[in-house]
Amino acid sequence: MLDWWGLPGRISSVGFALSVQSATMNATVSMPLSCPDCEARMPEAAAFCPGCGRRMPATSITVATAKEKVGFLPENIAGALAYLTFIPAIVFLLRTPYGKNRFVRFHSIQCLLFWALGALVALALKVAGLLLFIIPVVGPLFTVLVLVLVGLAAVVVWLVLVVKAVQGEMFKLPALGNYAEQQADALQP
Known about the structure:
Structural class: mainly alpha
Strand order of the largest sheet: 1-2
Shape: flat
Low-confidence stretches: 1-32
Strand content: under 5%
Number of strands: 4
Order of helices and strands: HEEEEHHHHHH
Largest sheet: 2 strands, antiparallel
Helix content: 40-55%
Radius of gyration: 23 Å
């Protein structure tokens, strides 16, 4: 028996296959679609057939996108500008036309939360770096490696947030996004 990824249903010697098996058995994924060429089963939102690779017809998945104009800026541009630094985010929250728009408010609050989290992580890394510098050779090397990796990760997350805002999507970071959405709804004038 094969699951919808084409993996055997029962493999006992491979840990990865067992985790995939338990994930597919416990998940409730509706798979009414099948490929017209190879008749492989697939999820509804599949763009390509997992069996033969044929492109599937587009389904009606609607994604809320920003289309309004706020002040003299389109709301997606205003949402992206909120991520430049924390200053535009604060300005957008305090200014009348921008503070009333839910999309701009959400991105401004998420930006401020991201900056606050970044400051806390930077402080924690600074303290950890001071403690690791006690170790003669490995401490400074490990500190520099961690600082570079965390910095690169922060830049990548920041770029994703800017691009998603330009695309007009309300992309939520895992923990911060839900809180930002709650606050954006609570600050509604």
